[in-house]
Amino acid sequence: MAATAPRPRTTTRDPEELTRRLTAWLRTRLPGAEAAGVTVPESNGLSSETLLFDIRHPERPAHACALRLAADPAAYTVFPVYDMPRQFRTMRVVAEHTDLPVPRVLWLEEDPGPLGAPFFVMERVEGRVPPDVMPYTYEGNWLHAATDEERERLEGATVDLLARLHDQVPRTAAEFLALPGAGDALRRHVTAQRAYYEWVVDGLARSPLIEDAFDRLEDIWPRDPGTPVLNWGDARIGNVVYDGFAPAAVLDWEMAALAPREVDLGWTVYLHRFFQDLTVAFGQRGLPEFLRRDRVEARYAELTGHIPRDMDFYTLYAALRHAVVMLRIAYRQAYFGEVAVPADPDTLILHHGSLRAMVQGSYWS
């Protein structure tokens, strides 16, 4: 998905039919209720779908809700599995063991019958989200227009979310997020990413760059990954609702896992760099002082006492993971006839230049 391109297709579902079916399901949980004002937010992701709606009931005040619906199986899904009970449980665990602002989850529906896929409903939190399209690093949005002090406040509060998450959730409460396989949590995490990559390229052109990146990970593998913690997974500011410049809700837990702290930190650092690099490539200055790697690492160490280590490895790993997702999204666009697959599949990865520099060890120099 190019920063300046139209959003790729993500669903084949009919919004009006979804509204009818959602109201019918809602009445099985709350007789007399109806789903009103059903909308799809502009910030809707490229994987699971989000619906915003109000619960209207003749004997109760209106209640603002959000619904997370597993990806449309007919829409060339980004991930092979959408485990909605796992996401629902993760949010409950985080709410129970931390003071993070996690929206209260209301209902889980595992039966795909009512809406065509499993889903869960949670309370909706009002606020604003840094945009992905056009990215917040571009001119013309609230975060770019903020002062340096306001962005610094948002940055610090966001790193604080990670620190509190990693420190406050007991490992025993997060064991259900341990990935299968042999080895420690980091080895299992990378093994799962390799399996995901193989699924993405099954029957399609492979990516030499992604495979080089996997090989480079082995060359710089951490000697001691440390004790794993509950990782948010998609730890980036685009998954936070902000009230002013303070986090009001932490969203999107579908990539949560038990992993080293630096997996989340590397993702936070690199996902900003992804947008920053694209912005610079399109001729704008972006936000070069925002979410800088050294500042994120220093802030996290100050809050937790844990000094981030092997961050060259973890930022490369983040760029690699993002590349696999981007490749899948590009192949989905090709499936829907939105793009043609070029002779060199690596060019489908928007950040192929920065990923190659990371593989070569020159990106951070």
UniProtKB/TrEMBL annotation:
It holds the Pfam family APH. Coiled coil: none annotated. InterPro entries: ACAD10_11_N, AGP_Transferase, Aminoglycoside_PTrfase, Kinase-like_dom_sf. Signal peptide: none annotated. Residues 83-283 form the Aminoglycoside phosphotransferase domain. It comes from the Bacteria. PANTHER family: AMINOGLYCOSIDE PHOSPHOTRANSFERASE DOMAIN-CONTAINING PROTEIN-RELATED, AMINOGLYCOSIDE PHOSPHOTRANSFERASE-RELATED-RELATED. This is Phosphotransferase family protein.
